């Protein structure tokens, strides 16, 4: 079995499998060259040969144990009918959903494939092009995180527009959450049909939900999506990332059916080993800033994380995505520390 699958099945390994969030990205010169060729970011996502190429680049350079499909969590809103553009240096811009009329313009969940068909083609290319021991990860955003972008029309530091809609027009907010949930199930299920072997659900803004809202809008949608995916694809492993969930990382795996819970940088290692890794496989949680800094602190922290999680199933990764200013050579410092003594 592939190293990643063994960890997700609950196996402890002396050297854990490793991959990095945003491992295909702007810190790599070869990514920047391919992106230049594609024109803009969305053209890169929707050109299967080029999306497969950038997925493969970090595998060639570093020999990671897993390749994550090159796409974006905002393709689901686009497939539901939102206008989406990426403004250079500013991030994503979407048409907003704040009224019943906006919501009425969205398409049904079953129609997403018309837009996302090229994404499935990327996965079919990867099925043949990746080395046999590298696991293929498909992904989507979790409904709350995707809703925060659809409601605000952009990234927001505190997700205030989404909280406002939730508090002022809960039926509309919940209808939107439901539509995203259904679309995400269709999209992820088609990714599995096209060759994804593992699914990861990114809830980047889960940490901004109150304890009560967390159960309703982070935990419950994850449970619904994971449950339906596993019903359609028995044995499918799923990684959940309720970022900045704090104490609520504990219990998240058992409550949602996720096989692995990805931890952000803020999580204490000993607490997580005791309280979370005793329930499910854990993934994480190196600070991406250390990939910018490099040097002995990067090597030391890598070994510290490996050793803290040495007693159970662990997937080595960052606590959040690698940043464009990371030095590609620093990844080797981490790999040498992880795989060496
Ligand atoms: O290598 C991989 O991890 C696979 C591809 C991937 C991308 N985005 C490519 C991307 C994945 C898994 C994502 C997830 C994603 N996208 C999340 C969840 C994870 C997280 O980081 O919290 C979110 C919130 C998004 C939405 C998004 N996409 C934003 C806010 C931005 C703009 C900010 C930025 O980093 O530029 C993007 C753009 C994006 N998605 C890039 C990449 C490689 C950069 C685009 C470029 O090349 O200019």
Protein described:
Pfam families: URO-D. Belongs to the uroporphyrinogen decarboxylase family. The record marks 72 as: Transition state stabilizer. Pathway: Porphyrin-containing compound metabolism; protoporphyrin-IX biosynthesis; coproporphyrinogen-III from 5-aminolevulinate: step 4/4. It catalyses: uroporphyrinogen III + 4 H(+) = coproporphyrinogen III + 4 CO2. This protein has 341 residues and is an alpha/beta fold. The chain has a single domain, classed as TIM Barrel (Alpha-Beta Barrel), CATH 3.20.20.210. It contains 16 helices and nine strands. It has helices spanning 3-8, 29-38, 41-45, 48-62, 75-79, 100-104, 113-129, 143-152, 160-168, 170-193, 211-232, 252-256, 269-275, 289-293, 295-308, 330-339, and strands spanning 66-68, 84-87, 91-94, 135-141, 198-203, 238-242, 260-262, 281-286, 314-318. It has a seven-stranded parallel sheet with strand order 1-4-5-6-7-8-9. It has a two-stranded antiparallel ribbon with strand order 2-3. β2 (84-87) and β3 (91-94) form a beta hairpin. α8 (143-152) crosses α10 and α10 (170-193) runs parallel beside α11 (211-232). The protein is globular. The mean pLDDT is 97. Coproporphyrinogen III binds at residues 21-26, 35, 41, 68, 70, 72-74, 91-92, 139, 141, 155, 202, 204, 321.
């Amino acid at each position: 079995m592939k190293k990643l699958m063994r960890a997700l099945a609950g196996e402890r390994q002396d050297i854990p499998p490793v991959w990095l969030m945003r491992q295909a990205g702007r810190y790599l010169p070869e990514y920047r060259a391919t992106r230049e060729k594609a024109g803009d970011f969305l053209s890169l996502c929707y050109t299967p040969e080029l999306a497969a190429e950038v997925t493969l680049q970090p595998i060639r350079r570093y020999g990671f144990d897993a390749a994550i499909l090159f796409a974006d969590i905002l393709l689901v809103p686009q497939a539901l009918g939102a206008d989406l553009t990426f403004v250079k240096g500013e991030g994503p811009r979407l048409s907003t959903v704040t009224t019943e009329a906006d919501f009425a313009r969205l398409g049904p969940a079953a129609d997403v494939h018309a837009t996302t068909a090229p994404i499935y083609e990327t996965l079919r290319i990867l099925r043949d092009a990746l080395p046999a021991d590298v696991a293929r990860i498909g992904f989507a955003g979790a409904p709350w995180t995707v809703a925060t972008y659809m409601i605000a029309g952009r990234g927001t530091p505190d997700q205030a527009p989404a909280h406002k809609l939730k508090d002022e027009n809960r039926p509309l907010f919940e209808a939107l959450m439901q539509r995203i949930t259904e679309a995400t199930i269709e999209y992820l299920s088609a990714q599995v049909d096209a060759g994804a072997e593992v699914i990861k659900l990114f809830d980047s803004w889960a940490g901004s939900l109150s304890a009560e809202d967390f159960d309703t809008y982070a935990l419950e949608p994850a449970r619904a999506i994971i449950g339906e995916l596993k019903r359609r694809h028995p044995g499918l492993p799923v990684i959940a990332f309720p970022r900045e969930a704090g104490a609520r990382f504990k219990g998240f795996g058992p409550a949602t059916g996720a096989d692995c819970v990805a931890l952000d940088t803020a999580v204490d290692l000993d607490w997580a080993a005791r309280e979370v890794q005793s329930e499910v496989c854990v993934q994480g949680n190196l600070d991406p800033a250390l990939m910018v800094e490099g040097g002995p602190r990067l090597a030391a922290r890598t070994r510290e994380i490996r050793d803290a999680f040495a007693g159970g199933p662990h997937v080595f990764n960052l606590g959040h995505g690698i940043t464009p200013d990371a030095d590609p050579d620093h990844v080797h410092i981490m790999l040498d520390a992880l795989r060496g003594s």
